[in-house]
Amino acid sequence: MSILEVRNIEKHFGDTEVLKDISFSLEKGQSLAIIGSSGSGKTTLLRCLNFLERPDHGSISVQGNVLFDASDASTQSEEQIRRKRLHFGLVFQNFNLFPQYTALENVMLAGTLLAKERPDYKTRKKEILDTIRTGAVDLLAQVGLQTRMDNYPHQLSGGQQQRVAIARALALEPDILCFDEPTSALDPELTGEVLKVIRSLAERETTMIIVTHEMDFARDVADQIIFMDDGFIVEQGPPEQVIGNPREERTRQFLNHFSKE
Amino acid sequence: MNSFLAVTMTLAGGLLTTGKLAALTLLFALPLGLLICFGSMSRFSPLRWLVKTFVWIVRGSPLMLQIMIVYYGPGLLFDLPLLPRFTAALVTFAINYACYFSEIYRGGIQSIPRGQYEAGQVLGMTRSQIFFKITLLQLVKRIVPPMGNEFITLVKDTALVRVILVYEIIWMGESYIKKGMIWPLFYTAVFYLAANGLLTLLLNWFEKKLSYFK
């Protein structure tokens, strides 16, 4: 069974159709790269998966459970959606770290708040918070920031901020980790350190969806590639096919244009 | 010299009324302003327009007139008992300043990047957790300078309550004119300058306290 099953997703903003009949699935431990020009709907698709946008049509299932179905209002209450978001993690283009918290506090905050919903929180408070802290410290070490844990975001470089953001998303142990153009806001010399972290996650078989403009990276890291254009999935398959030997004329045009840049 | 000391003591007494009114106004207007702000940003449009109209009326008419309406209005129009003078002044000031504050809050809230809310949402936070744990402190930091302006204006606006005979500092200063002394009235400025100087120092200190993040 696929870990993620997206069926017939459609999304309009006013009269503009941004996503048109998007369906795909993803296997556990695989990484999927979504490529395509600006305005093709890639980011909107990612935002739909994280319920930052509600699809107008279609359904999203994780591990066989329907999380969202546009035709079933019972799947759409705000409180339910909040819990369901936890199946997905999202790393933003602009990091969106919380400026008033240190790197470590950024990673711990959500876990600490969610722990309060546990029935045994009152009796085992110290133990639970220690576990969250240890986990956060480990994650920051994993992304190479063990010495910067007590720094505030404005004291970190863009690449370091993005690595904190990755640790923050991993802290809640999402089933699927999504990246929205994670290196687009970075200076070229800083993209490498972020891509390296994502690559190491792929090696550990983290299930990931990566919206990216880094073609070489997508080809190296992804198990599957989706090429989107004008709200449609034009082509999907393994990187050797979609990037190496595209079947569709539109994909070839896009990749040609890309290699010229 | 004797009279200088006596005048100083009398004016200090007037300053006490001024300070009490300003401090109590802040105490009530700061939270009330946030409520009005939420109302003016409500997704429920009748509430939004009601609140916006109210803010327009309060900000668009003279505070001095509002003080008189609140003090004399209930008695003259509905035969109700008058509020105590200081209470009437406080009610008017709290509502008037809350309306100004609400717009400062709104500007602050709208200047916080959407990404901050969205980052909280994807981390499974509730709306109130996002407000209290993420937005609030960033909001406070952003609004300290415009709020400081309002605080200083408030200290000086308290002089208006003399229209309903609340004996604040200028009223006290002016009362010496009958005794042939004009300088006590001018002297009141020193008290305002001292109070606002102190307030400015306090605001600078607070701004510095929040400078650990950007």
Could you name the key traits of this structure?
heterodimer; A: 261 residues; alpha/beta; Rossmann fold; four-stranded antiparallel β-sheet; 10 strands; B: 214 residues; mainly alpha; MetI-like fold
List the uncertain runs of chain A: none
Number of separate strands of chain B:
0
Seen as an oligomer or otherwise, the chain set is: heterodimer
Uncertain spans of chain B: none
Structural Rg of chain B: 21 Å
Please write the CATH class name of chain B: Mainly Alpha
Q: How is the biggest beta sheet of chain A arranged?
A: 6 strands, mixed
* CATH architecture descriptor text of chain B: Orthogonal Bundle
Helix content of chain A: 25-40%
CATH fold descriptor of chain A? Rossmann fold
Category from helices, strands and their pairing of chain B: mainly alpha
What is the spatial order of strands in the main beta sheet of chain A?
6-7-8-3-9-10
Number of helical elements of chain A: 9
With helices defined by DSSP (H or I, 4 residues minimum), what is the helix count of chain B? 8
How much of the polypeptide of chain A forms β-strand, as a percent range?
15-25%
Question: What's the helix-strand series of chain B?
Answer: HHHHHHHH
Structure classification of chain A: alpha/beta
Mean pLDDT level of chain B? 91
Most residues in contact, chain pair and counts: A-B, 27 and 21 residues
At the fold tier of CATH, the topology name of chain B is MetI-like fold
What does this structure look like?
The complex is a heterodimer of chains A (261) and B (214). Helices cover 38% and strands 24% of the residues of chain A. Chain A has nine helices and ten strands. Chain A has helices spanning 42-49, 78-84, 103-115, 125-142, 158-170, 188-203, 215-221, 239-244, 249-260, and strands spanning 4-13, 16-26, 31-35, 57-62, 65-69, 88-91, 176-180, 208-211, 224-229, 232-237. In chain A, the strands form two sheets. Chain A has a six-stranded mixed beta sheet, sandwiched between helices. With 214 residues, chain B is an all-alpha fold. Chain B has one domain (2-209): MetI-like fold (Orthogonal Bundle). In chain B, helix 3 (63-78) crosses helix 4 and helix 7 (169-175) runs antiparallel to helix 8. Classes of the chains: A alpha/beta (261), B mainly alpha (214).
